[in-house]
Amino acid sequence: MSENPALDDRLTVVVAAFNEADSLPLLQPRIARALDTVREEHDIDGRVLYVDDGSADATWPVLQALALADPRIALLRLSRNFGKELALTAGLDRVEHGAALILDADGQDPPELIPQFVARWRQGYDDVYGTRLVREGEGWLKRATAHAFYRLIGRLSKTPIPADTGDFRLLSPRALDALRQLRERHRFMKGLFGWVGFNRISLPYHRGPRLAGASKFNFWRLWNLALEGITSFSTAPLRLATYLGLLTACFAFAYGIWVIAKALLWGDPVQGWPTMMAVILFLGGVQLIALGLIGEYLGRLYEESKRRPLYLVDVWQPAPGVCSGQV
Length: 327
Ligand code: UDP
Ligand code: MG
Fold this sequence. Notes:
The protein is of the alpha/beta class. The chain folds into 2 domains: 224 residues, Spore Coat Polysaccharide Biosynthesis Protein SpsA, Chain A; 72 residues. The protein has 11 helices and 7 strands. Strands 3-2-1-4-6-5-7 form a 7-stranded mixed beta sheet, sandwiched between helices. It binds uridine-5'-diphosphate and magnesium ion (MG). It is a multi-pass membrane protein. GO terms for molecular function: glycosyltransferase activity. This is Glycosyl transferase family 2. Keywords: Cell membrane, Glycosyltransferase, Membrane, Transferase, Transmembrane, Transmembrane helix. It is found in: Cell membrane.
């Protein structure tokens, strides 16, 4: 939040665009109209920040032409294609004052809803996130895998990540400020928004088809995004290795004891086999347990290396006698 509260009453719409030359001219007038409405209804100054994520088509000249026609438009161009998550981070880093609203460049997130997001923000919510009611123009396979992914990550991760929620959302100045403190390199935005917390509310909406062009997220990219989400927001896979190791080691030890007992009781018909088996099973078991242990420490190291703040404060109300209010 800035020192001048008046500057907090601003809204910046951040749009990441990668090869969206055909969609942008259709999208911008809709955003402009939405910002006019926000101005009339809530007396809030609206702007747009387009981030060109290293597009190879005419996106950049198109954006420049749009910016010439409307002084409310700011442009940022990345040196190459860094992917949506980093393009959004770059955009959000440059929002100096007020709230930020994230919107897809392809028109799948209707700009007409912006006034509703702002209304929730003015009611005191910090994180207003759009929840998709329907996904048009997306096959059943994508819908089914997306559904499964949200359920899985919801179970694995301690961070609340609402299901069927994309990046279409509004962040209040303090939520934006908090998000900017998370500087980890592997950025799974949906998880980071969830980590920030504060007052959150869902805004259900109808997700339409793209205005033009094709989705940039094929299955391989989505799979990688899912892996990113799971490994960034949970050390459950590492834990799994620990338990698997322990379980296998238990079986190995039990079987090793059985092999030794059999040799002691009934002799050793294949010379040396029981000894060899016992040594192999013992060493295998010890190695698996050690690997699990290393995994546990690695998990902790990984958590530390993200250097996230330990907590964020929503309200701090000091009382005389308890604490002075000075921190
Ligand atoms: N995008 C981006 N960089 C990329 C890929 C996508 O900035 O490397 C942008 C893209 O221009 C669009 C948004 O991210 O504004 C969502 O992409 P897309 O519509 O392809 O994804 P989908 O809606 O199919 O999940
Ligand atoms: Mg899209």
